[in-house]
Amino acid sequence: MNWNLVIRQIRTISKVEIARYVLARRWLGVYLAAFAPVGLLALDRLIQSRRTIPSISDFSQIYAVLFQTFVLRLSVFLSCALVFSQLFRGEMLEKTLHFYLLTPVRREVIAVGKYLAGVAAMALIFGTTTLLSNLLLYSNSPSMSSFFFEGPGMSYLGAYVLVVVLACAAYGGIFMLAGLLFRNPIVAAFLVGVWEAFYFILPETLQKLTVMHYLQSLLPLVIDRGPFSVIIDPTNPILSVLVVIGIAVGFVFLSGKVLRRTQIAYSAD
To answer: Are 73 and 192 in contact (CB under 8 A)?
Structure first.
């Protein structure tokens, strides 16, 4: 296999797909979901009239709750389900997928190129909003500078950005495969969503079969998940990163194999 040619083909497909992400109106909901925390925090910053400013540890806990409940489990998850499940299913509905499949490019290369474009777009969007929302929240504190430049602020921020990028990579791979396997991937998204959202009530062995467990192991703070949560020790950070990357690679590999056997019959859709 000519790897230089493969890399050039992947790069070309990714460029084409990224341009489609930027220009597509159908992803407006993704932008709204991603920038919602930024907008709310900016509004709160403008109308804030508190006499007592919370401590820096309180701000950290507030952001941990916001990130782990809204950003990670809701916004990132649903956006990945919407975007990646449509990487191929959307083109089947629009009757444009055959243009890709008729090109002299291996189908696995097409899958990788489209996947990387999706990850790049989603990671850029959510990485940016994570950075902005984090800085906006801490800007309410007079101790912001010392927290970031003398305390753990930068490491916290780096962990949040890393987690959101890894989440996009892992869930992207899962939902790309779902879009190829199922005509209506909503059911698959619902089942995966329930599994991931309520992972903390599962026994230890089953928790380690979720993406969320490894993402949570990388976060700097733990939030209260209620009386029914099963508390287990977090996985080693390096191992967590490797597991999440492995999940992403595995699902992309399977997607390439499924795409290789895919036959286009637009009349069936």
So the answer is: no
Complete DSSP assignment for 211-262: HHHHHHTT-S------TT----PPPPHHHHHHHHHHHHHHHHHHHHHHHHH-
Pair of tokens at residue 162 = 């890393």
C-alpha 157/C-alpha 204 separation (Å) is 28
CB 253 within 8 A of CB 109: no
List C-alpha distances in Å: 129 to 36, 76, 97, 124. Answer: 9, 11, 32, 9
Cα-only R_g, the chain: 20
Helix (H/G/I), strand (E/B), else coil: 182: coil
User: CA angle 158-214-41, nearest 5°?
Assistant: 45
pLDDT means per 10 residues, the chain with 269 residues, are: 81 81 70 86 69 77 91 92 83 66 79 91 93 88 84 92 96 92 86 91 91 94 83 92 96 90 61
| Contact predicate 127/24, CB 8 Å | no
- Give the integer Cα–Cα distance in Å for 30 and 18: 15
Q: How far, in Å, are 3, 107, 134, 185, 262 from residue 265 at the CA level?
A: 31, 17, 47, 18, 9
Measured CA distances, 250 to 61, 177, 246, 257 (Å): 34, 10, 6, 11
Is the distance from CB of 75 to CB of 166 less than 8 angstroms?
A: no
What is the rounded CA–CA span in Å between residue 49 and residue 187? 45
Alpha helices in the chain (DSSP H): 3-23, 28-47, 56-65, 77-93, 97-101, 107-138, 144-149, 153-181, 186-197, 204-207, 211-216, 237-261
Q: Using a cut of 0.70, tell me whether the model's pTM lies above it.
A: yes
